[in-house]
Specification:
591 residues, alpha/beta, eight-stranded mixed sheet, five-stranded parallel sheet, 23 helices, 18% strand
Length: 591
């Protein structure tokens, strides 16, 4: 919905949130269901109502537990039957500067201030550790906004007896804790309140009357920022950007004005703005976002424009370049197909409102922000949080490189008439073995991102994956694949649970990057081998249909499994391990 993208009309969102919720719930979208516990140090009802709307838009249907007013610490540290039975998938702790219990003042010395800081941090750390022990799910904690007044004026910033200094140090301790944990995240209200304006963020009247730690008008900004963390945890981030060129990456029309006539560089204000926007977009490659071109242009002109000496983005920065006179929605769909991702994984950036309207209406789920005025481009993309980072692995850093290598593989494929000969020409090597501690974060990330090749659609939190890693009754397989074009990283994960003579396949997923390269056969061979070692005589596989995994509905059949049960469109399959013969013929596998 256009209303739910930055920049918001906060007042309108507050007034229409119930109407927006009804519209989203009736739009026919398939959403994942998640339980969210909100432990509040102030009134949270309006935050929850607004958060629900944003999450529905992002593909998550939430169910909420809400603590009693200011009972966040008690709910976290002590047993609470209602919360225990709720079994949250994620816990959000809504505390603000109002909830700091230990404070400094100008009468204290430096050692006193240090002791108070440690005591206040320990109060929160005790709460986080208890939650991890009890629930093992992701925890999101607010940091602290700056105080509404400064008793000592500017000295508050650097004097350990000032609350500005105290809050800054306490926030840093929160950050250090978050950086050392895989399953703990900071909701940065310090930044959001600064952007919104601290004087507008807080209202003594709202606090005294309703115990709102922020003004009602600021709630949409807050809830949206929080929703971005939650959707990222559960794999709902966008993956790629489709960029227009003329008047989006530079001023002017390269086909009409020529390369020398486009506006980019230091000579004009707009030229500087376009160049800075290009620099900002290029940085997305460093967090694994893929860049593509979607432009109505002759390809020759498009490439010439990108090779302009003042352009930061060059042709080699793009995984795919579509510069032609086709409709842009069709180009995005073709690009998605070539990259083996869904078209709704794209953010489309175009200065032309007509093109934005067409793409938005033709591709369900694609993000199409308003791009009005080059000076606003960076803020518009940045504040929408399309690519919120909650997990970051070495494979993320190499994602663009991996997809570009895929393009080379596609070119090579076209030169072969026999597909098996093509696969052999790739000189593929796979490492398939038990999970390694260093890979657990990446494996967890895959379970929450893989949609097309995910047979059971099971998702794992970091804690659940660690429990699986330590479970003696599980067969765990993690597959890496490389070939002559490059390393694909970790691309496949299988988890099987051994029960007497049967191995139930709880998870089988594979990255879309390596589809149709027989990696699934190599994983099956290895699974059968490990199952036999455990004394199993049979594999049992499950397919649970979703909106996006239809492509693997018959996978077990192609493996030689026998269909034993059908319920609606979900199926159960079995394979006897007696006399099993390896199926992989093209990948060299090491353990």
């Amino acid at each position: 919905m256009k209303e739910l993208m930055y920049p918001f009309d906060n007042g309108l969102l507050i007034k229409t949130k119930k109407k927006l919720k009804r519209a989203l719930l009736s739009d026919g979208s398939v959403r994942i269901k998640k339980k969210i516990a909100v432990l509040g140090g102030s009134t949270t009802s309006d935050i929850i109502a607004m958060l629900e709307v944003f999450l529905l838009e992002q593909g998550i249907e939430p169910e909420f537990y809400e603590s009693e007013y200011a009972q966040y610490w008690q709910d976290a540290v002590f047993s609470n039957v209602e919360l225990d039975e709720f079994k949250p998938d994620v816990i959000f702790i809504h505390t603000t500067s109002r909830n700091i219990s230990e404070k400094v003042n100008p009468t204290l010395d430096k050692e006193d201030c240090k002791e108070i800081l440690e005591k206040e941090f320990l109060r929160f750390k005790t709460m986080w550790d208890k939650l991890d022990e009890r629930f093992g799910c992701p925890v999101i904690q607010n940091n602290f906004e700056l105080p509404a007044y400064r008793l000592m004026g500017n000295r508050e910033a650097y004097d350990s007896r000032g609350m500005v200094n105290f809050i800054t140090k306490l926030n840093v301790k929160f950050y250090d804790y978050a950086e050392s944990r895989e399953n703990f995240y900071i909701n940065d209200i310090n930044y959001i309140s600064a952007c919104y304006g601290l004087d507008k963020w807080t209202s003594l009247q709202h606090w005294y009357m309703y115990k709102y730690a922020m003004t009602l008008e600021a709630v949409p900004e807050f809830a949206f920022n929080l929703s971005n963390i939650i959707k990222s945890i559960f794999g709902k981030n966008k993956k790629a950007i489709a960029l227009d060129l003329d008047n989006t990456l530079w001023g002017g029309v390269v086909g009409d004005d020529g390369v020398d006539g486009i506006e980019i560089g230091e000579e004009t204000p707009d030229g500087q703005a376009y160049r800075e926007f290009q620099s900002y977009i290029k940085e997305f490659k460093n967090i694994g976002v893929m860049l593509t071109v979607c432009s109505k242009n002759d390809e020759e002109n498009a490439v010439a424009g990108l090779n302009h000496p003042d352009c930061i983005l060059k042709p080699d920065d793009f995984t795919v370049i579509k510069a032609n006179w086709e409709n842009k929605d069709r180009n995005i769909e073709n690009t998605a197909s070539e990259m083996s991702i869904f078209s709704d994984a794209f953010v489309f950036l175009d200065d032309n409102p007509a093109e934005r309207a067409i793409v938005s209406s033709q591709i369900g789920g694609i993000a199409v922000p308003e791009m009005e005025g080059v000076e606003n481009y960076i803020k518009t993309v940045d504040r929408n949080g399309f690519f919120e980072v909650t997990g970051f692995s070495a494979d993320d850093l190499k994602r663009n490189e991996m997809y570009m290598a895929n393009a080379k593989r596609l070119q090579a494929q076209n030169s072969f008439e026999n597909y098996e000969e093509y696969l052999l020409s790739l000189e593929m090597n796979a490492e398939i073995g038990d999970f390694k501690p260093m890979y657990l974060a990446r494996i967890t990330q895959l379970t929450n991102k893989s949609n097309q090749f995910n047979l059971t659609t099971k998702r794992y939190t970091q804690t659940e994956m660690e429990q699986t890693f330590n479970d003696e009754n599980c067969i765990r397989l993690c597959g890496r694949l490389e070939d002559k074009f490059g390393d694909n990283g970790i691309v496949s994960v299988v988890v099987g649970r051994v029960s007497e003579e049967i191995v139930d396949i709880e998870l089988w997923l594979m990255s879309c990057r390596v589809l149709k390269r027989d990696m699934e056969l190599a994983m099956l061979d290895r699974l059968c081998e490990e199952a036999v070692k455990k004394g199993a005589k049979k594999l049992r596989g499950y397919y649970y249909k979703t909106a996006k995994n239809k492509m693997v509905s018959s996978l077990y059949e192609t493996f030689g499994f026998t269909l034993v049960e059908t319920k609606d469109e979900d199926t159960v399959w079995e394979l006897s391990l007696e006399g099993y013969v390896n199926k992989n013929k093209v990948i060299n596998v090491t353990y």
